[in-house]
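Changelog excerpt

This revision adds worked examples to the README so contributors can see how folded entries look when concatenated. The first example is reproduced verbatim below.
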Amino acid sequence: MNEEQKDIFFDLLTKKAIYGLDAAEQAQLDAMDPGNAELEFNSLEMAAAAISLMGADNDPMPASLRSKIIADANAFVVEQNEQTVAWPPATNEEENGYIAASDEKPSGSWLGWLGWASAALACVALALNIYFTRVQTPPEIAKTPPVETPRVLSAAELREEMLKAATDTIRASWAVGNVKELTQVVGDVVWSDQKQAGYMRLKGLPVNDATKEQYQLWIFDKNQDKATPIDGGVFNVTAEGEVVIPINAKIAAAAPEMFAITVERPGGVVVSKRGKIAALAKVETPSKPTA
């Protein structure tokens, strides 16, 4: 079998391993069978199977890519076959005439030749496997649901949570102060000594211009001098209707008795003159109020 016939024979075996042959091509292969075709086909089929399995979870391999694999493998095999059949240089004993030298080159083993083909195809398969692994997202990562960021609760929702959880919650209802225009302020204050937290629920307090004035809360505690009640923080009302404002006590309030809201300059004051008291709330009998 000459080199051209060998190329045709190998191409037929390769096509049989990857695509399969039609009747005419199978007949051509049978006519060229040197006796080891079945073993050689099995060797190629194993390499082709490695490529097919590699792409099982991906899109089908393009025809142009398959053709390139066959061409590259064929070229690799031809090069390796030429190196394999190259006759080795004569030894000293041959040069001295002890062993007769021959100008003939051995034909090489078809099984060895096809072994190189299998290795070539397997190398190409490995390269493609690495490529697909790097460019595609692993299924276990792609299927992992995104981590949801917990929703931030509003002040009204936090108030409800505190009322459900705290056992020492106290309540005080708002009443009018000394500002004649403010006659419709209603709502309540809830406070927990244990949590050192509380909320003001207000309705009827006008929207303020924060560049001119702010509201400030004061906490009158039985353990604190009445002249210097605890600063509960400044706040703004930005919308009409009911609002819920967190209390920001500057020091611990162990036993609040009354709460007051004054109108102060922007940023608040250290000690209020109490000239504008918008609302007052006296603490009711300590108990856990209903929401």
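The second example, added in the same revision:
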Amino acid sequence: MSIRQMTQLWTWVLGLVLLCAVPVSAASPDPDAVLKGSVFNLQRRQDEALTSVLPKLAQADVVYLGETHDRPEDHQAQLALIQALHRLRPTLAISMEMFQRPYQSVLDRYMDGTLTENELQAQTQYAKRWGYNWDFYAPILRFAKANRLPVIALNTPTEVTRKTARTGLESLTLAERRFIPPLSAIVLGPNSYRDRLQKIYAESHHGQSTSVNLERFFQAQVLWDETMAERIAQTLQQQPKALVIVLVGQGHLLYGDGIPARVARRMQGARSRPSLTQISLLLNAQTSDYLDDRPSADYIWHTHALPETP
């Protein structure tokens, strides 16, 4: 893994502790400019035409749009891709890491038109629990509302993730387990994922960490992924005709170890989806950092001709 890639992954991991960001100005979305971007196929190690990629995405069961949270062009790309996919396959469900699972009913009330945007932010505690510029995600939510598309809150409650990192999964009370999978359904692996996170954790603690602290840290990361995977799998089963689009940080997608493999495990044998196709896009990532022997995702999407952020 390259230094840049390690930095990218550590930025994602750091969200476990910080979970709030300094607001960043968002450029106005320009879907036409975004869709002039290029796509690199990591499996084949070659560029691929946008006209051939979009139909593949539209035919999938799950499409992951992996973002860097504070990069405005990533969110512009998400909106443009959602709009393009909606034209090809109108039945969409948009799943978002940016909202925590206890606030699903609040999201539903916003979608029903009974809450304003300001009320949605306040009642989901958006500024406290996510904190990135609201304007990054507001156009996506408005598009979903205008087109009556369900929006799914994916994330683990902050308090639960932090407590797991401090004292481990077994320390969680029954009340704290309400919005996470049963502990028996949480798989602490694979070893390749553990090894990557161990390197990051050791570097951040300058070699002073203990094995117990590392294990709790790993449990917290896996809990984060498993909670989101469970909700995605539930959506797939409840809405068998929908294409589920997932907006999530890139670190949750790399090599499929975070969310995708956990969704696939939950969907094995599901009658609603006898087969499962998942496609991961890393938005605006540096291609040279992801040319590993084992593909880290399916595609890298590069946006071109975007207006510069003031």
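Reviewer comment on example two: The domain at 3-302 is CATH 3.40.50.11550 (Rossmann fold). The first strand starts at residue 38 and ends at 41.
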